[in-house]
Amino acid sequence: MEHIKVILLQRVSKLGYIGDVVSVKPGYARNYLLPKKIALRATKENLKYFEDQKEQIQQANEAAKTEAQKVADQMGQLTITLVRQASEKGQLYGSVSGRDVAAAIKDLGYKVSAGQVDLSAPIKTIGVYEICVNLHPEVSVSVKLSVAKSEEEAKQQIAAASEDKASSENA
Description:
The chain is of the alpha+beta class. The protein has two domains: about 5-65, Ribosomal protein L9, N-terminal domain (Ribosomal Protein L9, domain 1, 3-Layer(aba) Sandwich); about 75-170, Roll (Ribosomal Protein L9, domain 2). The protein contains four helices and nine strands. The chain has helices spanning about 25-35, 45-75, 100-105, 150-170; strands spanning about 5-10, 20-25, 40, 80-85, 90-95, 115-120, 125, 125-135, 140-150. Strands 4-9-8-6 form a four-stranded mixed sheet. It is elongated. It starts with a strand and ends with a helix. The relative contact order is 0.12. The mean pLDDT is about 85.
């Protein structure tokens, strides 16, 4: 399969940093990088344009990174509770997805999209989870998520998880 070269306008994990010229599959460039203005095709005109605009692009990225860091500092010890129906064994009737987590974070007053919530797989059992939220390509924050049958059970889970963490740190 043929690859095309693009200039990155922002950092993309597992791909490169601002200003890198990278080779990607045409569909990835056409459907994701170019429409979201994350990259430009690596033509002579675009290379010249990037060099002319490099300072402004880097300043805009730094401003966005600083803003994301402020939000990350505010979200530092955030704990989210999701109440779901579940079986006696703790299996959820359904699952918790990134969209559910993002909606719960939004309810607390933060701007987060489902794409920023990093869940490797949907959550299908009751428990306490550490969820990574990517606020910026270079800034992420860990959020505690409690999935329970009731608010009371969620509080007990969080307390038990805090005790387990404290006892493992003291050991």
